[in-house]
Every structure is written in structure tokens, then in C-alpha cells.
Amino acid sequence: MSSVLQQDPYAIPLDDIDVANPSLYETDSHWPLFERLRNEAPVHFCKDSLFGPYWSVTRYDDIMTVEKDHETFSSYPTIVIGDQDPNFTVKQFIAVDPPTHDNQRKAVTPAVSPQNLSQLEPIIRERIAEIMDELPIGEEFDWVDRVSIELTTQMLATLFDFPFEDRRKLTFWSDMATSSEELAGDDSVSAEERQAALMECLEAFTEIWQERANNPPEGKLDFITLMAHSPSFQKMDPMEFLGNLILLIVGGNDTTRNSISGGILMLNDNPSEYQKLKNDASLIPNMVSEIIRYQTPLMHMRRTATKDVMLGGQQIREGDKVVMWYVSGNRDSTKIDRPDDFIIDRPGARNHVSFGFGI
Known about the structure:
This protein has 14 helices and seven strands. It is α+β, with helices and mostly antiparallel strands. The mean pLDDT is 91.
């Protein structure tokens, strides 16, 4: 595939395009391939990849079609392109369909409800001020580590009511959960290393679960207390508990820290947009939505066809992997005006597919 990366994207045979190749993202080479797929094969079949054969859904409207039909396009058995290791299989409520998905999601939602986040706002502001005040002046520093990761990890520890002094364990477990042998560079870890780290995560949170379950909730809204006292989670086996931990840790860590880092980069790369922000701070909420669209912290999600179905003029068979590429849908010019431009006062900025739609 390395030779393919060096080719003109429009010279590559359509059947040879594999947008799941991790090297594309390491080299930022994926954009023209997605543009081509949207134009020529919006529902595209890749027969050979690191993750096996799969369908790519690259246009906004087709993504929405898949998202809205969980009876045909199921989240089970997994939402990632690759299949799980049969010797280390975890279950997650995001990888099941309603009603189980709805009941478990509803049980943990109070932790991130607008009301609870509003109560946490003073803490968030205080921590942001502390982090920013500690940054060096007149010298280079790692923004991702010192700001994006640190702020995100501090708040994630609060949402779990996890020991604050051990908060970087959450970052480590999140990074290990999203690593694999197929990924390049520092993201490549052996299956044994990954499993050992995740079992350490399970052990730590099992102790916390037991402590929370044996005490009245008393209005506490951390994730573990909510799970421990919800009927929807009482029949979880250890691997399902681990799967849901991974879901909540990665969901709270990866997307947030990537959006913070991406937002700073975008403002730096677009000084005219930064000037708009300095002139009018009321643009911040809309800017956040535009950052999430432009950055697209969740690049894709998979479904599995439960029956033969036509989509975008293509025949999809029962059992086929169907991958919704949010990173492509957010650049669909048929739905979004000037999609490759970062515009902080963009009308309808919230109409993105960065986190999917529906369930």
C-alpha cells in the first residue's frame, strides 16, 4: 500500500482504494481519496484490507440513512472496523441495539447531563486557569500533554470519581484501548501488552465498583455510582464491565483532547477566524461546533448488515461490514457549504455527523 500512498489519488484503480489503511492518516493522505469516493463511489466496497472486506459510506445523506436504521444496520457485534480478538472479547452498550443500548446509556447520562455539567463549570474554569497559569512564557512546550490531556484527564477523573493523583492512568488505559499491532509508530502495541493494561484497568475499577455498590448513592452522579445502582448494569460480567469502562474512558478522553488540540491548531492556521473570535466572544459556542465538524474527533463507526439491502445503488449482503466515515460526511459539499474551510460563525455549524446520529 506504500506505493499507493505516493500515487495520484485519481490514478489509483477504484477497487484498490482502502481508506481504512492507517498509513493514510499518519501522512494526512486520506482527504483526496474520500473526495474521490464521494464523487465516484459514495458506497464503496474494499475487498482487501488489514481489517478484512468492508463497505465505505462517505456521503452525509447515506451516513444518515445507515444511522437511522438500526434494524438493518446493527451495532452488534462491534462498532470498529476490525473484528474483536476471540480470546479477548469485551461487550459495550454502544455495540448493541435498542432497547439494551437505550437503557444502559440512559443510566449513565446524568453524569454528563447539562445540569450536572453546569454544576461542574466552576471547577472546570478553575482548573483551566490553573493549567494556563502554569504554562511557560517565551519557550516551547507540548500543548497536547500540558493542556489538552491534562484538562481532559482531570475532568475525566471527576466524572468517574477516580483518585485524582492517579488520573494519568485513565489516559494510559485510553491510549492502550485504542492501540493495536496494526497501527504505526507509537500507537502499535502487542496484543499481550494491551490486554495486560486493560486487565489492570478492570481490577482497579472493580474495587471502586464494590465500594460504590456497598454504599448508598446519596445523590452522587459519577459513572461508577450510576452503574453500580442501576438495574440495567446488574447482570454485567467482568468483560462487559471492562467494555463499558473503555467506552466511557475513551469517549471522554480521545474526542475531547483531540478537539481541544485541533481547535488551537485551526485558530493558529486561520488568523482571520481567530480575529473574529477576539472581536466577539459570543461566537464561542458556534466555534466549538465548527471545531468538532472540522476536526471530526470520531472518524468512523461500523455497522453490520442484518439482511441483504440496497444502499446507494450497491447490493450489501447480510453480515457485511458497513463503515460510516464521519470524517468524509463532514466534508460533503452537497450538504455543507465550503466544507474544507474552517469558519467559526458558520450557519448551522451543529449540523455535523462527528458523533453520528440517532442511537
